[in-house]
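Issue: ligand-bound run for pyridoxal-5'-phosphate - logging full I/O for the record.

Environment: standard queue, default settings, no custom constraints.

Inputs:
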Amino acid sequence: MDGKIYTQKDFDKITDRTGTESIKWDGRERVFGKADVIPLWVADMDFETPEFIRKRIAKRLEHPILGYTYRSSAFSGSFTSWVQRRHNWTIDPTWVTFMPGVVAAVSVAVLAYTKPEDEVIIQPPVYHPFYFCVEGNGRKLILNNLIHQDGRFTFDLAGLKRQITPRTKMLILSSPHNPGGTVWTPEELRGLVEVCKEHDIMIVSDEIHSDLVFSPNVHTPILKVAEDYKQGIFLTMAPSKTFNLAAMSSSIVVIPDENQRKLYENLVHTLHIGLGNVFGFEALEAAYEEGDQWLDQLMVYLTANRQLIYDFLQKEIPQVEMMVPEATYMTWLDFSKFGMTQEELTKFMIEKAGLGLNSGTQFGKGGEGFMRLNFGCPRSILELGLIQLKNALLENKLI
Ligand SMILES: Cc1ncc(COP(=O)(O)O)c(C=O)c1O
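Outputs:
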C-alpha cells in the first residue's frame, strides 16, 4: 500500500502524452487529418495511472526473469473482493476467468456460444466494436434500437420481442451504456433477462464502465437480477477504464455456469490467448486491492467536469442538448438543431472548432446529429475545448 491520498491536484495535472504512441494523442493526424485538435475522443483518460499501480509493476520488474507465468489466486480474489465492496455483489471465485481485453471477450463469446448464421442482437446506438464482433465472426447482426427518452436511453422490449426468431441466440449489452452513459435500472435489466430467458438467448453483458457510476445511480451487475438464468449470462468487467490502464490488457470474465465456462475456456485454450501478461496481472491486482480512494476522488473530479459541460452548454450554447451521463466519462451531445449533415458536423468539429470528437454515426443508427465527447481529462483542457467550440459556432454565425 502506498498510503498516498489522491486529491484534485492529481487530476488537474497535465501530463504530455505525445510521443508515447498514444492512440488518442499521437493518432490525431491519422484519424482527424490534423495533429493539433484537442483530443476528446477515444475512451481513455488523460489522468496518470495511479502510482500504487505503477509501483506494483515496477516491483515485479525488479525480478530479472520474465518467463511464462500463471495467474495467482490474487487475480480472482482481488476482483471478487472489489465487486463485493464496490457493487455489493458476492460471487464465487471459480466463476472468474480471464481475457486480455473486453472486446476480445465479447468476440470469443460470440464464437463459443453461437454458430455461423445465428442471429445476435445489439441495441444501437452502441459501442461500435460490437458490430464487428458479430459480423466479423460470420453471425447475423440484428439491430434493435434503444429508445431515447427523458434524457436517457431505455430498452425497446416490444421491438426486441418482435425481432426474435428461432435463430436468435445472443444479445450483447453495454452496461452502463456507451455512448449514452445510461445506468440500467434493476427493473430494466430484469425485463431484458425475462425476454432472453423465455427465448433461450444468451446475454453477453459488457460492464467495463461499471465502476464509473455517478451518485445517486447504482450499477447492477446483470447476474444480480438473473439468479434464475445463470446459464444464460456471460459478464465481463475490467480495471482498464476505471484506472486508465487499457494498455495493460487484463480483463475479467465471469461465467457462473460450469458448462458454459468450459466451452469458453476450451476455445480460449484452442486460440491460445489465455496466458496474459505478468504486468497486466500486477496492475489488475493493485487496482482492485488499493484503488478505492483514487476512484472515489476520480468520481468527484468527473462529477465536476460533467457539471462544467452542462452549465457551459446551458449558458453559452443552449442549442446543444447533453445526455447527462449517469456513468462514465463520455457525454452524448445532440447538435441536430444546427441542421448540418453528419459529414458537415464532423468536419466543423475538426476544422473550425479544432476538436477531435467521435462522430455519433460511428455508433450506428440513432447517432445522426450527435457527437460523443470524452471528459476524462484535466479541467483546463476541457474548458479550452468548450471555449473553442463556442468560438467556432460564433464565428460561423451559428449562435
Ligand atoms: C463498452 C466498451 N467495451 C469495451 C471497451 C474496450 O475494451 P478493451 O480495450 O478491453 O477491449 C470499451 C472502450 O471504450 C467500451 O467502451
